[in-house]
TrEMBL record:
Family label: Belongs to the glycosyl hydrolase 51 family.
Protein name: non-reducing end alpha-L-arabinofuranosidase
The species this protein was found in: Novosphingobium piscinae
The entry's keywords: Carbohydrate metabolism, Glycosidase, Hydrolase
UniProt-listed Enzyme Commission number(s): 3.2.1.55
GO MF: alpha-L-arabinofuranosidase activity
Domain of life: Bacteria
InterPro entries for this protein: Alpha-L-AF_C, ASD1_cat, GH, Glyco_hydro_b
Residue ranges of domain Alpha-L-arabinofuranosidase C-terminal in the record: 306-491
Length: 499
């Protein structure tokens, strides 16, 4: 049994607020992420409200999803919003060229997305089409969604069933425009982005002021630095006509490209490869922050990690363009590690979106017809709800290491924060797949919360066994001034601490 680890939590929460938007989600028109996962249609035998499946909405409400990014991803740069409004039987059927080459019926358009966001209580993060669209098209979409005045587009929105304007608090200015978004050089993207940022206006009465809608320019992918540098340079020397509030970063945990790590049936070596890759998020954020600090030392602009998650070999027999993969305890652990890293960078990271919400990549939920299963990643997001908008409390601990050579990893990771009611919460990830860990926490006497673990790192929830990986209660405490908390091997624990 490894030696106990002392974990010291700073007495006062001197850290930044962990923006609830780091717990955002991403729902792209890809595979069965939207069609089947969210949208079943009004006439479906699967219980639904206006075509949106009820079981999924109920499950997502428990996550207090702060924002959903839509319609892509790569799909955003080939999306034309007019194809997705008006009578369903007159909507354009197109081919989804990025994802599987299947027909895209446009049955789920702006009204259906906004309805979904409202049903789950989330805000809209809309990505506009810079790659194959025009600034005028994007500007008109924003007017259609947000204008309250009596304009032709507001009337059209009302005729399509929505009189009141919607809010659009987050706007993506393109997506991966170095690649699927038009293969643009960084310099070319910046010129396009400035034009779009100049002409797209939010007319919602609560969001008309500059800065009330967060505009996110495209920044880094895992190994491309030039976009962030060029965007920041342009921002520093901007004139009055345009502005942005954030720069994106995309990082998938793949363990190599193309993705080939298995989603199931793997051992401790492949587990270590995935976790080693996941932990590089820390370095990427530090590097992107360092670039941004040179142009923006006052940290006005945010980093939006608006795509992150594990990207594995597709499920055998599935359409490889659908990016369908199972979700194991390992993936829940990866989620917790990423969330801890975002929290530690809360001074810069204000938005993050796990890819993706349902049936695609690191999903919260898997569906099959009328059946639904909650993944280990879902449980981690649910357990982390208390950290939304809590204030980070610096934590000191010597994590130690387990394993050898390239596969040596820290034994634990931890993060603490104080919520608005004054309650202190601690998240501990025991990365070690074989050994439990005992933690001593001075200044606290009791802990109560939940822990997520399972017999193996590749344990999953299936339709046959939907609760194989499920949180269970975790309690510790006594009368002494130092709490001893025992966390099992390969686990994520979130507990409320009391002095
Ligand atoms: O999430 C899947 C895809 O990954 C997105 O569409 C794209 O932006 C990224 O490359």
């Amino acid at each position: 049994q490894p030696k106990p680890i002392e974990l010291a939590i700073a007495a006062d929460p001197t850290g930044p607020v962990i923006d609830r938007h780091i717990f955002g989600q991403f729902a792209e028109h890809l595979g069965t992420g939207i069609y089947g996962g969210v949208w079943v249609g009004r006439d479906s035998p699967i219980p639904n409200v206006r075509g949106i499946r009820t079981d999924v909405v109920t499950a997502l409400r428990a996550l207090k999803v702060p924002n959903v990014r839509w319609p892509g991803g790569c799909f955003a740069d080939e999306y034309h919003w007019r194809d997705g409004i008006g009578p369903a039987d007159r909507r354009r059927i197109q081919i989804n060229g990025n994802w599987g080459g299947v027909p895209e019926p446009n049955a789920f358009g702006t009204h259906e997305f906004m309805d979904f966001a409202e049903q789950i209580g989330a805000e809209a993060f809309i990505s506009v089409n810079i790659g194959s669209g025009t600034a005028a098209e994007a500007a008109q979409w924003l007017e259609y969604m947000t204008a309250e005045q009596d304009t032709t587009l507001a009337r059209e929105r009302a005729a399509n069933g929505r009189a009141a304007p919607w809010k659009v608090p987050i706007l993506g200015l393109g997506n991966e425009n170095w690649g699927c978004g038009g293969s643009m050089s960084a310099g070319h993207y910046v010129e396009e982005m400035k034009r779009f940022a100049s002409f797209i206006r939010n007319f919602h009465p609560a969001q008309r002021e500059t800065g009330r809608m967060k505009r996110i320019a495209v920044g880094w992918d895992s190994d491309r630095l030039d976009y962030t540098e060029e965007v920041m340079k342009a921002w520093q020397s901007r004139v009055y006509s345009w502005d942005i509030e954030g720069v994106s970063l995309h990082k998938y945990t793949t363990g190599g490209w193309p993705p080939r790590l298995p989603a199931t049936g793997f051992g401790h070596d492949e587990y270590a490869i995935a976790l080693t890759d996941a932990l590089t998020m820390e370095t990427l954020l530090a590097r992107q922050s360092a670039i941004m600090d040179r142009y923006d030392p006052g940290k006005k602009l945010a980093i939006a990690v608006d795509e992150w998650g594990v990207w594995l070999a597709p499920n055998p027999g599935s359409n490889p363009g659908f990016l369908q993969q199972q979700n194991s305890l390992r993936d829940g652990i990866v989620a917790a590690l990423n969330l801890n890293i975002f929290a530690r960078h809360a001074d810069r990271v204000k938005i993050a979106n796990v890819a993706q919400m349902i049936n695609v990549l690191q999903a919260m939920i898997l569906t099959d017809g009328g059946r639904m299963v909650l993944t280990p990643t879902y449980h981690v997001f649910r357990m982390y709800v208390p950290f939304q908008d809590a204030q980070l409390m610096p934590v000191r601990f010597a994590a130690g290491r387990y394993g050898e050579g390239a596969h040596a990893l820290p034994r634990i990771d931890a993060m603490a924060a104080r919520d608005k009611s004054g309650q202190v919460w601690l998240a501990v990830v025991n990365i070690d797949p074989e050994a439990g860990t005992s933690l001593t926490v001075p200044g606290y006497r009791t802990a109560a919360g939940e822990v997520l673990t399972a017999p193996r790192v590749d344990s999953i929830n299936s339709f046959a066994m939907p609760a194989a990986v499920a949180p269970r209660p975790l309690r510790a405490g006594g009368s002494g001034p130092t709490l001893t908390l025992v966390v099992p091997a390969r686990s994520v624990a979130v507990v409320k601490l009391s002095p």
